[in-house]
Amino acid sequence: MKTKLIISVLLVVVFMFQVAGCAQQTPSEPATSTPADTVVSEPGEKDFSEPQKISWAVWADQLTDINNDDFAKIWAERFNVEWDIITMTFDTWDEKVRIWANAQDLPDVTQWSYNHVDGMIYAEQELIMRLPDDWQTKWPNTAKAFTDTEIGPRLIEEFGGTYYLPRPVFSNNKPTETLLHHQGIYMRKDWVEAVGAEVKPYYSVEELMDVARLIKANDPGNAGDNLIPMGNGIADLPWLFIYPLSTYSMSSYEYYQDDDGNYQWGPAAQETLEGLKYYEQAYREGLLHPEFFVKNTGVNHQENFYMAGISGMCSAPGMAQVALRFSNNFKENLDLETEEWLNFAFCVGLDGKYHGPEAPNFWGTLMFSPSLSAEKFERVMDVIDYSCTNQGQYEIRMGIEGIDWELDANGELVNLMEAGMTAVDKYYCIRPFYHNMYILSDDFGLINPSYPQVFRDMSYNQYQTKYSLVDDNSLGRTDWDVYFHDSDAKRRAYSDLSEEYAALVIADGEMENKWNAWVAEKMKLVQPVLDELNAK
Fold first, then answer.
1. Are strands 356-357 and 202-204 parallel, antiparallel or unpaired?
2. Which of 85, 242, 318, 520, CA to CA, is 20 to 30 A from 43?
3. H helices then E strands: how many in the chain?
4. Weakest-pLDDT range from 28-42, 43-57, 185-199
5. What three-state secondary structure class fits 228?
6. What is the DSSP letter of 288?
7. How far is CA 22 from CA 150, 329, 363, in A?
8. Superfamily of segment(s) 183-357+483-534
9. Where are the domains of the chain?
10. Is the pLDDT at 462 greater than 60, yes or no?
11. How far apart are CA 404 and CA 360, in angstroms?
């Protein structure tokens, strides 16, 4: 039976994308500078004479007023709306939403990183609004983006109606049929060349460690005792050692069905042990930050890379906006141009294949207060629907038409901002609010002309290259039936595997003995889950 992926229902889902296609399909064509057509519904066709003040909870740092910059004023006047933004930190996100929902005190609109356990409770107990059955007809642009997530229509089937609007990572500019995670490795190209190593788009784990060893031995940046050849913490280091070898070793992707149709637990696979051995070896050889395993130390691994200039490589998302931020910092702090320092790569397994789960096409969701008035709900949906049109996306991603961007005679986007400037930099309100109002920024990032072409190509090419290196054995597929499976056993078995891997790495003893003891202990919680899945 074909290998399938079971996503743990307890993880607050992050970095999620579309499920579609098969690994051997032809890759998508590169995205053009103009997205696919959307159904245009001009705001002027509706009556917005009655002002509305709407509360909206977002994941962000504490905000000042987001209603008063030039961009915000245009949208506020267009829809005659004032936003009351409530912020949530990532650490308290789930808890705060849970308290609000159970106290029947939700803001009008809440951005929430969806998990299915709480999601079922909120819907079944009617702690959140059920959207009108005709909403997809009234707001077709939102409906199109909603359908792109795949999980959206599945949640309708699960709950018998629409309670959530999952936010699509890609809608108009999907880079490949089957989406993969965008995490990769930013490398000091100048250092790699200086130590005589090869600059490549991808490396095996062993090859990457060899590059790190050469950096440690030669110290091309003259960092001295501060040198960190591989500079990341516990959340990112598994991308360099474990995930490239073991397809099902990541939290929320650890349950899978083997060729005989039996469910297994990925961290107990031999490939996970092999990855842990590399991870431990890198630590013992001094290739990692000496306190990589300590949280809340104030160490910023990205700043060590692009500000202090003491790190040889840094794992981070392969997005154009991230690359631009890195590049701006390299120029400002280290006086290095992009072509001097940038090599973006990723790790493959010892078999030369890219390993990992496909990435479902949503991250987080919108939900609405059950006490939200019909008038406010209509206004919110009108704003969201406009944000999903081409024009809405141009404005959110590029700024004010005629000032920050324009369309040329061929309908192509032309950036009018100075080099290195983006709409997010220019208008305060965009980053915490409009930026991820519904369609996420990843989608337009592949074609956004305010990002230099080199970064857009980097982002697009990483998807294409990864996609070309997967097969049905290295790619973990999503099993949505099991995604919706819930049990007390499954809740008890969940853990942050990246933290547990780090604990194994720094513990005394031989890795195989440590791993065997850990697996035996973990299976006391995991085996009941496997029994439930195998009984289906």
1. unpaired
2. 85
3. 22, 16
4. 28-42
5. strand
6. B
7. 15, 39, 21
8. Periplasmic binding protein-like II (3.40.190.10)
9. 52-176+361-451, 183-357+483-534
10. yes
11. 33
d(CA 81, CA 86) in angstroms, rounded, equals 16
DSSP letters for 358-427 = B--S---EEEE-TT--HHHHHHHHHHHHHHTSHHHHHHHHH-SBTTTEEE-TTS-EEE-SPTT--HHHH-
> From the CB of residue 259, how many other CB atoms can be counted at a distance below 10 Å?
9
Let me know: does 255 contact 530? Beta carbons within 8 Å.
Answer: yes
- The structure tokens listed for 341 are 């320092």
Fold match between domain 52-176+361-451 and domain 183-357+483-534? yes
Instruction: Report the distance separating Cα 308 and Cα 333, nearest Å.
Output: 8
Percent of the chain at pLDDT > 70 equals 90
**Nearest CA among 293, 256, 269, 197 for reference residue 501:** 293
- Written as six digits, the tokens of 353 are 């294949």
| CA 373 vs CA 52, 369, 380: distances in Å | 11, 9, 11
More confident residue, 37 or 519: 519
Share of the chain above pLDDT 90, in %: 80
Q: Which residues contact 39 (CB under 8 A, 6 or more apart)?
A: 140, 141, 144, 389
Would you say 462 and 184 are in contact if contact means Cβ atoms under 8 Å apart? yes
Distance from C-alpha of 212 to C-alpha of 282, rounded to nearest angstrom: 9
Bridge-partner residues for 368, per DSSP? Answer: 109
- Rounded Cα distance, 504 and 390, in Å: 49
Q: Which helix (H) or strand (E) holds 211?
A: helix 205-218
Q: Tell me, what's the pLDDT at 474?
A: 94
Residues constituting the chain:
536
The predicted structure's pLDDT at residue 341:
97
**Single-letter residue type at 308:** A
Output the CA–CA distances (angstroms, integers) from residue 294 to 285, 291, 304, 484, 499, in the order listed. Answer: 18, 6, 16, 34, 10
Distance separating alpha carbons of residues 244 and 204, to the nearest angstrom? 8
- How far, CA to CA in Å, does 191 sit from each of 188, 287, 289? 5, 15, 18
pTM here is: 0.85
What is the distance, to the nearest Å, from the Cα of residue 259 to the centroid of all Cα atoms in its chain?
A: 30
The lowest-confidence range among 85-94, 182-191, 496-505 is: 85-94
Of the options 3.40.190.10, 3.30.1360.20, 2.60.120.620, 3.30.420.40, the CATH number for the domain spanning 52-176+361-451: 3.40.190.10
